[in-house]
Specification:
Length: 304
């Protein structure tokens, strides 16, 4: 079978569950992963494919036709211009989480120097003096999964000390491999964040960031089949009777484990931004909601 014939067959089969545009995009990724670049499909479309390549393509097609996400089929996903390893133990990184990372980076860089000096310090210096708050920013990523947030932060803030925790040992193995691939050092810890007895092992932080589970169990039937059947439920869903448990715990944790003027950044369900904002406000945090590129209220920052 030629490259052209194989590609057309691949796209036609995918169109039984995806629209034409998405079928072509998925096919492009699979063929690229198999070493068949787009230019080659145009310039060498009549080239015969080996039996080994055809077998590999057919194997991936069979997986895709079960609604398995392309990222899990290929074992990789792109985030913050980096390729991350992913499998069924970690969530697939999403573009809106990149916006959360950008917000953290923006805030950490802007607070490298503290202009909120004590009044006696101001009297001794010029009005424009800037005083370093700390040589190193210490940041915690709660529920790190693939490690995409922690690793992206380390890439953008190489002098920062990054801690990343997750309840899943399997997820931490993926995250550690991704850190090795990207040549960054992250302090990974296995920890059940909902268990307050485990908090004592964590130090004090300048910033805390998290994309926690926040989808109520009752909304499973509203999600795409490829999400519900393949992505880890422990990283997606919370019980209907306590959907804000992670945010309440984070607000409480930050009261003990964040420095003065430190900040908490969280991704939220677009329908519950006001509820999460109130949780932090009840703990005396000043809060700000940000919309994502689609105009949805998906991110909150809290600080004291």
């Amino acid at each position: 079978m030629t490259i052209n014939e194989s590609y057309k067959h691949f796209v036609k089969d995918l169109q039984t569950i995806y629209d034409e545009r998405e079928s072509n995009n998925i096919a492009d990724l699979v063929f690229e992963n198999a070493g068949i670049k787009k230019l080659e499909r145009i310039t060498a479309k009549q080239q015969q494919l080996s039996n080994l390549t055809l077998t590999q393509l057919n194997n991936k097609l069979e997986q895709l036709l079960t609604h398995k996400p392309i990222q899990y089929v290929l074992g990789e996903a792109w985030f913050y211009k980096m390729k991350f390893r992913v499998n069924e133990h970690v969530l697939i990184p999403r573009p809106e989480t990149e916006e959360l990372v950008e917000w953290v980076v923006e805030e950490v860089r802007s607070t490298k120097y503290d202009v909120r000096c004590k009044i006696e310090d101001v009297r001794k210096a010029s009005n424009n003096i800037k005083r370093p708050t700390s040589d190193i920013a210490r940041i915690l990523d709660i529920g790190t999964g693939s490690g995409c947030i922690a690793i992206a932060l380390k890439k953008e803030l190489p002098d920062a000390e990054i801690f990343a925790i997750d309840v899943s040992q399997h997820a931490l193995q993926v995250a550690q491999q991704n850190a090795w691939d990207q040549n960054v050092e992250i302090n990974f810890l296995e920890s059940d964040f909902l268990n307050e007895d485990q908090w004592h092992v964590l130090p004090i932080f300048d910033s805390i960031v998290s994309n926690p589970p926040y989808i109520p169990e009752g909304e499973k039937n509203k999600l795409a089949k490829n999400v519900v059947e393949y992505e880890p439920h422990i990283a997606l869903f919370v019980e209907n009777n306590d959907p804000f448990i992670f945010y309440r715990k984070m607000a409480h944790f930050a009261g003990r484990h964040i420095k003065q003027h430190g900040k908490v950044f969280v991704e939220v369900h677009e329908n519950f931004s006001e509820e999460v904002k109130q949780i932090f406000a009840d703990k005396n945090f000043i809060t700000e909601i940000r919309k994502d590129l689609f105009g949805r209220e998906r991110m909150i920052c809290g600080y004291k």
